[in-house]
Amino acid sequence: MKFDWHGAEISRATEIDADYRNTQNVRRFLSGQCGPDFKFDRELMAWVRSGAAKNMGDVADEWTRRRERGRA
């Protein structure tokens, strides 16, 4: 069954599937996890869509890692 990226409740355990979409629902979740400075960029989206198994917690953690590396 397809996950409803527009309306379903997203948690850190929500798996990224082939039908993943950057919706307002996804942005709300990631802003809650990463803070108000969260934004998508091309490199993060390429990482999300790379095909490797991951969940939304992995996405939030990766964004945080990339942000911290940029500050170093």
From TrEMBL:
Report the InterPro entries cross-referenced here: DUF6434 (IPR045492)
Could you read off the lineage of the organism from its UniProt record? Bacteria, Pseudomonadati, Pseudomonadota, Betaproteobacteria, Burkholderiales
Pfam family of the protein (one): DUF6434
Domain of life, per the record? Bacteria
* Domain DUF6434 stretches: 3-66
Protein name, per record = DUF6434 domain-containing protein
Source species: Rugamonas rivuli
